[in-house]
Amino acid sequence: MLSALSEFFAPTARRRGAARLAASLAVSGLFVAGSIAGAGTAVADDTLQHRGGAAATLDGLRTYDKAVLHTDGETRELPAGLFEMTVDGGGKLKTYCIDIHNPTQNQAKYLETPWAQTSLGANKNAGKIRWILQNSYPQVDDLAALADDAGTGPLTAQTAAAGTQVAIWRYSDNADVDAVDPQAEKLADWLERSADHLGEPRASLTLEPGAVSGRSGELLGPITVRTDADSVAVSPPADAAAMGIEVTDKDGKPVTEVTDGARLYFDVPEDTADGTASLSVQATTSVPVGRAFAGVTKSQTQILAGSSESTVSATATATWAAQGAIPAITAEKNCAKGGVDVTAANKGDEPFTFQLAGEEYEVEAGKSRTVTVPVAEDQAYDFTITGPGGFTENFQGVLDCRTTGNAAPPADETITQLAPASAGVTAGTDGLDLAETGTSNATPVIAGVAIGLVLLGGAAVFFFRKKNDPSTEE
């Protein structure tokens, strides 16, 4: 029997402003304010920096049955199954949890995220998780066929979802966990035994790199489009016509629609005032199964099990000037190093010097340099990069790179108890209070992290400035 949402979660097997930035740099430098936000702090949608893909809001745990987690000689019953998300701009997602000890947060915001920026990056079994997703519910929604293949006996949507989630937890969290229902447990065992390694699926939509810079009068780029969508709509910068700026191909021909692999450029007229602008691209596609979704604030990391046709997007920025240092700034999580990589590229004709946490770094003309800002596991970060004339870039998120496995919670911490859905969960669906799902052995109230940037030697502000600029000397 098809699930109630199978009609838009079709199985893969059946279908495949101008700011005078550079001039101002010579006067006052590029100011970067850094702060550490509490994990529970809300993040406004318009401040999110996302390399690309789907952005969604968690609706709840909708199709599930029971499982039992064994930790340190104790057992704990918890729900196991499929979550649903609503995609910004349209679309629905179904996901499983890959972070069993971390509870979800009510209406948490999630972003499509590369495996390397989640716990999957260091998980040698990440490919087996993707295999499970491809070969179980809801990708295989013929439950009779699934039961026959697995030798389980009759399965319902709820028990199939539970068995699939249990098998995933065994690989994502190295968890000692069993499904309560006998058929669900047989499914979990079969999936665990049968799983093979599959590679990470490509992003639904991204732009590489996310920021470029160069001299006015030149084509700034290239910015490469990576997508599995059939076509991608390109939106030029706001007020582009007034500034004479166009988004073009390598020959300078304006483009409004592209496909995978296309290279985009900012065509900035020579007499344009020094400044910065951004372009956006958007497509409608099914997000590939196996893509990770990380919370913007601290919330249980998810992995995609099914997608309707959904709206995905990406943005990229360009900075230009007539002369001097011309920086482009990007930032992304680096789970391997336990921090956030801040990358400064300089397409100008003079060195670009910046200070970070009391250290000075220089980027030669035509070169780039990356500095890793240490951030503690489960800690939220908020880096806002601003400059004269309204230039601003903001990078926010939570460094959630590890799961706790079977480690027992500290004696002074309280395990989050699971409870049935209360007000706010749609009647007639299988749902839980999102703040109660998961089994937390690390209390999610990491808010109140009033340590500033202690990990950075106590530095709470960063300064990017032009070398030998006396106005920025302390």
What value does the average pLDDT take?
77
Low-confidence segments? 1-48, 406-437, 440-474
The count of helical stretches stands at 6
The count of β-strands is 25
Strand content: 35-45%
* Helix/strand class: mainly beta
What does this structure look like?
About 10% of the residues lie in helices and about 35% in strands. Strand 20 (about 350-355) and strand 21 (about 360-365) form a beta hairpin. It is mainly beta. The protein has a six-stranded antiparallel β-sheet with strand order 21-20-25-1-23-24. A six-stranded antiparallel β-barrel has the order 2-3-4-16-15-5. Strands 8-17-14-10-12 form a five-stranded mixed β-sheet, covered by helices on one side. Mean pLDDT is about 75; it is low at about 1-50, about 405-435 and about 440-474. The longest helix is centred in the middle third of the chain and has 16 residues, at about 155-170.
Structure at a glance:
By secondary structure, the protein is mainly beta. It has six helices and 25 strands.
Structure keywords:
disordered N terminus; 6 helices; 474 residues; mainly beta; disordered C terminus; six-stranded antiparallel barrel; six-stranded antiparallel β-sheet; 12% helix
What is the topology?
Elements: H1 21-28, E1 30-35, E2 55-71, E3 74-87, E4 92-97, E5 109-113, H2 126-134, H3 143-150, H4 157-172, E6 177-179, H5 182-194, E7 205-208, E8 211-215, E9 219-227, E10 232-235, H6 240-243, E11 246-248, E12 257-258, E13 263-267, E14 275-286, E15 292-295, E16 302-307, E17 309-321, E18 327-334, E19 339-346, E20 352-356, E21 359-363, E22 368-374, E23 380-386, E24 392-398, E25 461-466
Parallel strand pairs: 8-17
Antiparallel strand pairs: 1-23, 1-25, 2-3, 2-5, 2-6, 3-4, 4-16, 5-15, 7-9, 9-13, 10-12, 10-14, 11-13, 14-17, 15-16, 18-19, 19-22, 20-21, 20-25, 23-24
Helix pairs in contact: 2-4, 4-5
